[in-house]
Design goal:
It is a single chain. This protein is an alpha+beta fold and 287 residues long. It folds into two domains: 173 residues, RlpA-like domain (Barwin-like endoglucanases, Beta Barrel); 69 residues, Sporulation related repeat (Alpha-Beta Plaits). The protein has five helices and 15 strands. Strands 3-7-4-6-5-8 form a six-stranded mixed β-barrel. The protein has a four-stranded antiparallel sheet with strand order 13-14-12-15, with helices on one face. It has a two-stranded antiparallel ribbon with strand order 1-2. The protein is globular. It starts with a helix and ends with a strand. Pfam families: DPBB_1. This is RlpA-like protein double-psi beta-barrel domain-containing protein. InterPro entries: RlpA-like_DPBB (IPR009009), RlpA-like_sf (IPR036908).
């Protein structure tokens, strides 16, 4: 082979190899992950495996370099229906409801974050678009479905600590982002009932269901207490209110809250005040 022909063949091989690498991201090696306590920007987080979980808070959009390996063995993708949570086991399937517009999506949690303790959830740009989020933090409700996660084979009680350091019923309508695809299906029939229905690393569909929208306010929870006198002392010190918590007798019966607040900025200020008052982990409540 002549030198000129050899160089041309070599260049062609390099181009083809580069194209192959760009179109074939690293394969995920999925495994359950919990991880050790880790420090965010303003507080510590303590991962804990849960079988039931429902919480309100603020969601934000986040990005990573493409194909970044994640704690559960997946690789990050801006196009994936995935997100980051500070403490739940990974991976975990959750429903996320945008309280501003009633859109509900299903995503897989596979990363740790956000580092800002005033935020509850970080999602990919694709999830944000499907949910109708803007650039500002969005009020959401996150719900963990124990049946769906158990069907994937991730028993919360059996999830090991891998020492990973942080870096409705009835019919519903599912609609794609561009509005072309619209499906009506039975919510109960659509549940994941077996591992073969959806593997944990499989792509979730970029669709949402629509729920009614109700008015809400922002509050900051300073803590929950078994004894009223203890809650009263904290409320007095931090200029907050004591309310009756909804419990079953085994959970704390009194809650210390501050609010209501009309904007996210006001709640951020309230959380900062709570930390200055000695509350290490204040949290946002939307109701």
């Amino acid at each position: 082979m002549k030198l000129r022909e050899y160089k041309a063949a070599l260049v062609t091989l390099v181009i083809l190899t580069g194209c192959h690498e760009a179109g074939a991201p690293p394969q995920a090696s999925l495994h359950p992950a919990l991880g050790k306590p880790w420090k965010g920007l303003d507080r510590w987080f303590y991962p804990e495996a849960k079988t039931e979980y429902s919480e309100t808070g603020l969601a934000q959009i986040y990005t990573r370099p493409g194909n970044t390996p994640l704690p559960d063995g997946e690789v990050w993708s801006a196009a994936a229906m995935t997100g980051a949570h500070q403490t739940l086991q990974l991976p975990a399937l959750v429903r996320v409801e945008n309280l501003n517009n009633g859109r509900v999506v299903k995503i897989r949690l596979n990363d740790r974050g956000p580092r800002d303790g005033r935020r509850l959830l970080a999602v990919t740009p694709t999830v944000a678009r499907i949910l109708g989020m803007g650039k500002n933090p969005t009020p959401v409700r996150i719900t963990l479905d124990p049946q769906q996660n158990a069907a994937l084979g991730y028993d919360s009680a059996a999830i090991p600590d891998l020492g990973i350091a942080p870096p409705g019923r009835g019919t519903v309508t599912a609609q794609s982002l561009d509005g072309r695809d619209r499906q009506v299906f039975d919510a109960d029939a659509g549940r994941i009932k077996a591992r073969k229905t959806l593997s944990a690393g499989e792509a979730l569909p970029p669709t949402y269901i629509q729920k009614p929208v109700y008015p809400f306010n922002y509050y900051v929870v300073l803590g929950s207490f078994y004894q009223h006198r203890v809650a009263a002392r904290v409320a007095t010190r931090c200029q907050a209110l004591v309310t009756r918590d909804v419990g079953d007798g085994a959970n704390p019966a009194w809650q210390v809250i501050d609010g209501p607040f009309p904007t996210v900025e006001k709640t951020d200020d309230a959380q900062s005040r709570a930390q200055k008052c000695g509350i290490s982990n204040p949290r946002l409540l939307v109701r």
